[in-house]
């Protein structure tokens, strides 16, 4: 993709991948420009979401972003806190994240997944007003849906390796399977 093609994707929306009966609805912060340009969640090659999903045992093989439509067959889905695409998540302000959290609660209440897994604890803190939230299961629920804050799989998040992220994702998988 050219820089012009990526810039043209700014503010586009990437559709949710959802179905009834989801065990886990993964929730990104918002789509990046490559995701918006391609229409696929977590499309940037340096993003570790798809490898970590496989390493943690959620999928039997490594899926590519273009195979995101297979997720509901594993009782998994994807959405975002904020729908519009930006080059970087830090382009979103706190008010936009809070409004995204309100809309996300409505979506979760309608879909009723067993778990909502927000990938990015900092965005979760702002969107849900949970300033002290840490990685792991949260006390807050949306109806009967439990919430788990996961590390952000962006390649910019150097604090977490793919292996350490996979361990945390696997903890969620075990809880979702129980």
From TrEMBL:
By what name is this protein known? G/U mismatch-specific DNA glycosylase
State the organism of origin.
Streptomyces amakusaensis
Q: Which domain of life is it from?
A: Bacteria
Sorted keywords for this record are: DNA damage, DNA repair, Glycosidase, Hydrolase
SMART domains in the record = UDG, UreE_C
Enzyme Commission numbers on file: 3.2.2.28
Q: Name one GO molecular function term.
A: hydrolase activity, acting on glycosyl bonds
Q: Does the keyword Thylakoid apply?
A: no
* Originating gene: mug
Boundaries of every Uracil-DNA glycosylase-like domain copy: 14-176
């Amino acid at each position: 993709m050219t820089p012009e093609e990526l810039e043209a994707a700014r503010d586009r929306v990437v559709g949710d991948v959802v179905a009834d009966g989801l065990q886990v609805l993964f929730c990104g912060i918002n789509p990046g420009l490559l995701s918006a340009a391609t229409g696929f969640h977590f499309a940037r090659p340096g993003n570790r979401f798809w490898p970590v999903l496989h390493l943690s045992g959620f999928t039997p093989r490594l899926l590519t972003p273009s195979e995101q439509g297979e997720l509901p067959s594993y009782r998994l889905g994807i959405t975002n806190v904020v729908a519009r695409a930006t080059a970087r998540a830090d382009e979103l302000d706190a008010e936009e994240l809070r409004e995204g959290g309100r809309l996300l609660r409505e979506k979760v209440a309608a879909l009723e997944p067993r778990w909502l897994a927000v990938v990015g604890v900092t965005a979760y803190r702002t969107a849900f007003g949970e300033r002290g939230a840490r990685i792991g299961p949260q006390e807050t629920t949306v109806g009967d849906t439990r919430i788990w804050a996961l590390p952000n799989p962006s390649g910019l998040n150097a604090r977490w390796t793919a292996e350490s992220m996979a361990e945390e994702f696997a903890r969620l998988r075990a809880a979702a399977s129980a």
